[in-house]
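Reopening this one. Same input as before:
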Amino acid sequence: MTAAKRWTAPAKVNLYLHVLGRRDDGYHDLDSLVVFPQFGDVLDVAAADELRLTLDGPFADGLPDSGDNLVLRAAALLADAAGVPAHAAIRLRKNLPVAAGIGGGSADAAAALRALAAHWRLPFDAATLQGLAGRLGADVPVCLCGRPARIGGIGHRVRPIGPMPSFALLLANPGLTVSTAAVFQQLDAVSRAAAPPRQSYDSVADLAMDLQARGNDLEAPARRLVPSIDRVIGRLGDLPGCRLARMSGSGATCFGLFDDLAAAGAAAAALAEAEKRWWLRAAIVAGTG
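Same output, byte for byte:
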């Protein structure tokens, strides 16, 4: 029996997110800088005579194991495009909270595309996989990219950026889910024209300064739906060494930006003492050259 191969599905964090306008199809045009801390869900893929998905991990109970599960949808879409049987045994360890603004389902779908394309030895290039990713959801293309990138359109236009320094994030979630659709329904206005997007950053201080001039347009409506987001952002911002505290995506996960993993880890330990029910995770974001 062939041993399972492991693939990671890192969290997706929006360092800023501007909503530029509503489209005729009901979706919104976005401008966002996305990064991927080195922590997330894990997929193990092995040979099988059918398609099977097993779920475990601290947040497995929040996911279906059939039907609308994005991993299974990715497997079926890829197999259909390649004309091969959708046969594989997939184990998904769900380490990321569900409906939390950090793209867990999209990251899982992207990892499934990468993993199964390799497992089935498909001759698909990056552009083909990106096209399939876009059919699975707006965040899946950037998760498939997997490196710091600016996204446009509904999320399907992905432009990797760099160089960018290494830094660390402390992710914090108060144990609450937020409906993305509900947040957009609460959105009062769209962003004014922002400064031209940066394509590189020389230091963590340079990155933090640029982010201070931007924001997350979904933060205010999410706060109205989940007022405890205010407390999360405030607590993160008060931690020593935190350069910026903000909500990611449509929430409720928020992040603090730190110079390095040691500072973020110390902050996580201090915060865990006071907020014992929060989900907390410090992780590095690798720099790009």
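So the earlier flakiness isn't reproducible anymore. For the record, The chain has two domains: 5-160, 167-285.
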